[in-house]
Amino acid sequence: MPSFPDASMTDAKTPPNERIQFVLGDITYETVRPLAQRENGEVIFLAERRLRHGPSDPVTIKRMKAPASFERRLRLIQEVELAFRLSHPAIAPVHHLMLRDGMPHVIEEYVEGPSLDTVIHLATVREQPVSLPFALYVAAEAADALHHAHTRRGEDHQPLGIVHRDVSPRNIRMDRNGDVKVMNFGAAYSHLVGREETPGLLLKDDVAYASPEYLHRRPMDGRSDLFSLGLVLLQLLTNRRLFELEDAQAPAQNSRAEDTLSTPLLQMMTFINREGTDDLERAAGHLPEALRAILHRALQVQPSGRYASASEMHGDLKAVLRANAQPFGRFEAREELALMLAEAAPPQDA
What we know:
The protein is α+β, with helices and mostly antiparallel strands. Helix content is about 35%, strand content about 15%.
């Protein structure tokens, strides 16, 4: 029977507003306040990590639904073990997986800054998308992180075949220092030896950024994430999705979704099946030709027409970014983000 890492804790049920505390050796983790609650029941907390004889620093704790079966419990443990194998400056590291009140809690790095969901919202409030260099910088950093995940190998030196499967604005965050962080590899698929294979056939989370092969339950590789990243990049540049879906709960007929879908699956599949070329031209026609070429290649319906690797897409994004009149990197991203937050804060609060 797979088990979660041991940590001392109380057995009583935790009221929603009560602080949760874990003690693991010389380290204490204690929640401070909720940060977000998702439709699938997950709650994300800001927490404090304290050393017995040292400083404290912030982390996040994601409380997940209790696995309903042995298979899901096994898969959850494997997903977190998978995340432990990733070490890249643009990937938020996972520290621990613990159990309380029968519910798994994943402890990972706290990123002091907004998700791209929030960035896009702030840009909409300003009625102005982020700058082209900002969008290119974010996409290039995310592509580099995905390349690291896609090319990871196991102890036997065999490829793990990791696919994030949920590259979306809510899973890419901007640190206030200008760093980009790809989050939540908890939905990741892998060819890890001994790993349950069914996740590759399941639909999960927000399908509005899903690749055609994911929607149709076909075999996936890293090119699936590049399709999703292309959709995220286009939304950053235009403040709108390529495929505008109704915000309704409408699971597809005969779908094998694990969780309630946040967007209508059948409508998304209709968009995908018509290949979306006209949609892309209408949305991206005002962008520079080199950038449109990147989007067209990333958003090919057939994986064979896309970039062969995230590294290749990263190279093209960096080439367009270098062609910009002014250099743009972490410092410039930090400045633009700070300005966006300052300008959009009053109407957002209202």
